[in-house]
Amino acid sequence: MSRRRISLRQELPLLVWLVIVWGALWQDFSPGNLLFGTLLAVAVARLFYLPPVELSGRFNILYAVPFALVFLAKVVVASAQVLYLAVMRGPQVKNAVVAVTLRSHQDLLVTATGHVISLIPGSLVVEVDRSTSTLYLHALNISSAEDVDNLRAEVRSIEAGLIRIMGTREEVDAVRTEAAA
Amino acid sequence: MSPDPTGLDFWIDLFSAVFMVVGAVMSLGAAIGLLRFPDLLSRMHAATKPQVLGLFLLLAAIGLQMRTWWVWPVLVVAWIFQLLTVPVSAHMVGRAGYRTKHLHRELLTADELEAVVQKAAAKTAREDSSGDGQLH
Predict the structure, then answer these.
(1) Structure letter (DSSP) for residue A53
(2) For chain B, which residues make up each domain, given as ranges?
(3) Checking CA distances to A79, which of A69, A127, A177, B134 falls within 20 to 30 Å?
């Protein structure tokens, strides 16, 4: 597999993250330590480079902060729900495997959506079809076709939220027109 | 250490106590779920969700009790790695579990993946029998 080199701008988020991890692990954010961390980050990114993550080049912090807060709240709800189901329903719990087709075909967005829905109430990614960007979810406590539709709508709205944060222009426009319709 | 309801220490201790108890309850919930849920896929829900929150609360309690700012970045990094790795491991276990049929089909109200997997299996079988099949 041949890999084209990616630009520094695309690699920058990865390098910044590596330096933050380095500083956090040493619990030392002094300039000297950060400089050494930067050298190591560049060396690691050059020597062991992974397939480049294709960023869209935009990141909307105004959508990201509310999304993060809602996500945290949903993690709490998810835990409470699983706790309740484990104690009250246990062996009788009804499940479903649901296919959800996403709008975006970017690996980053499909992965991010998969991660978020694995952590929010009731769903877990079982299988990913990359060519059609379809996620197959295992959902807890689904007993009717209506529940399946609700879950599908929820996943699509999470994807819309992520597209607003870091999708490409075209995807954002598609989400906007869909929301207006 | 005398409890003084007006002091900052009191509130920090109170919050960390609440966080620790709730975090421990969440981890207990994960354990109950592992025991009570009927099949592998529903157990994976128990293994992922409550313990992510439980870890978050316990890390927050540590951060409050340490009373130094430099411990926060490492706690945040620890939690972010948890957020990144838990769905991946759940996905890998779930995927393997689904394909090796470690699930109770009678408990599923809908299964939109079964047909796809069977189609793929049939295709692989056809390619294998024609000689130069490649496993995907």
Answers:
(1) P
(2) 8-129
(3) A127
